Amino acid sequence: MTQTVSYISLSELLSQNRAPESIVCFDDNSEITWQTFNDDLSQLVNLLSSSHFQRVAICTQDSCLFSVAFLACAVSKKHIILPGNYQPCALAELSEHFDCLLVDDSIGEVDVSNVRNIQTLLDSNPKAQKPLTDNLAPIDLAAIQLTLFTSGSSGTPKAIDKTLEHLDIETAQLDKNWGDLLKGNRVHSTVSHQHIYGLLFRILWPLCSGVPFARHNLEYPEQILSHANKQSVLISSPALLKRLKHETKPAQLAGVFSSGGPLPTESAHQALNLLGHFPIEVFGSTETGGIAFRQQQSAQTPWQLFDCIEASLNSENCIKLLSPYIDKNNWYQTADECEMVSSNQFILKGRTDRVIKIEEKRVSLVEVEKRLEQLPWVSECVVIPFEEPERLILASVLVLSDQGQAKLATMSKGKFWLMLRSELRKWLEPIAIPRKYRVVDEIPLNSQGKRLTSHIEQLVKS
């Protein structure tokens, strides 16, 4: 069923007269109507409004339950916290940032107080007596705080504070650029709503546009192709689009978005041949929101700034921004080296700091080093990105502690590395765990005590 609703601001989303039978989200077997969505939302608002919790974290893989919880927090004037990592130890480490953690069944047991399963709350509490939309005033978005997390240069997840007004401005810009592409279609996704790209593109923009979105992610290339049709818009990333190269059967989509990291030109052309479109790539970050976009016909296709953003370069040719998604009155300096080709177009050269992207996930090399050095077997280490023929991985050069040397003497190197990786898995996502290791007596340093990167790279290659 095609449904068309005019775009409406997040502030008035719950005050609009939306048809009760209109579809909000769907999975392979069912659809959630606005009536059901609103009933669940009303129930959760009643629970949250009467609770003493002020900072509420949400971590789910179910995008429908996430949306209910997110909007319920907004209506209840809670500070919304979105951890970027599903791992239980990593969630527990962020517990100082929240009073309550809302989860779904996909999240393992987290060692913090006040963990609540959203579906259990909905099932065990009576339905709200009146619908939420009765006489609901617009939400004051500027007053609702949102904290997202990204990899910081200090090695611990960095809290990025925004308001829902920032997100609302950006969602309106997305609709201005591509509203016609979304209208009358459905949204499928391969990316997490816990991060800003997924939050904006797969949750808030569809919600505000009245466009149904998928409840669960597509995880494999064959799932993309089996779900593809001319009424589907795909919100994806280079990590998955690159994996389409082994597929041969084309399937037409209404459109494709990609963000989170650089998309190889070859992958852009593969997407054109398989899915019918060059992906619309969006360049940005948690801190900045979206900065620019392009459809890459060649590697030199420039990035086009969103028309509400101004940009210039500093003395190191790193782009700085004047953006309503950050602070409309103050310039924001990035670590992204660029070449301006016009006042609103640029070519991206690369990052100048120690936070890198591997398959669209930002990985702090400092954090990986810190996690390794926390282990009793490691005295000192350095972690670097390493290009393998098929992918980018992390490699580590280690100085073992006495305990580590004793442990290694009792087992094979292979088992020792597996033990390290198993320990790191408690803290790091799989993509951030080094795959290559070298043991040395000391980390190569120059006379100023700085790491000799070229020597370290040679050690990894040897």
TrEMBL record:
Family annotation (PANTHER family): ENZYME, PUTATIVE (JCVI)-RELATED, PTHR45398
Q: Where is the AMP-binding enzyme C-terminal domain?
A: 367-450
Q: Where is the AMP-dependent synthetase/ligase domain?
A: 17-295
- On whether Ligase is a keyword of this UniProt record, the answer is yes
Q: Does the keyword ATP-binding apply?
A: no
Name of the protein described by the UniProt record = AMP-fatty acid ligase
SUPFAM superfamilies cross-referenced by the UniProt entry: Acetyl-CoA synthetase-like
Gene3D superfamilies in alphabetical order = 3.30.300.30, N-terminal domain of ligase-like
Source organism's superkingdom?
Answer: Bacteria
Molecular function in Gene Ontology: ligase activity
* UniProt organism field: Vibrio splendidus
> Which keywords annotate this record?
Ligase
The UniProt entry, under InterPro entries, shows: AMP-bd_C, AMP-bd_C_sf, AMP-dep_synth/lig_dom, ANL_N_sf
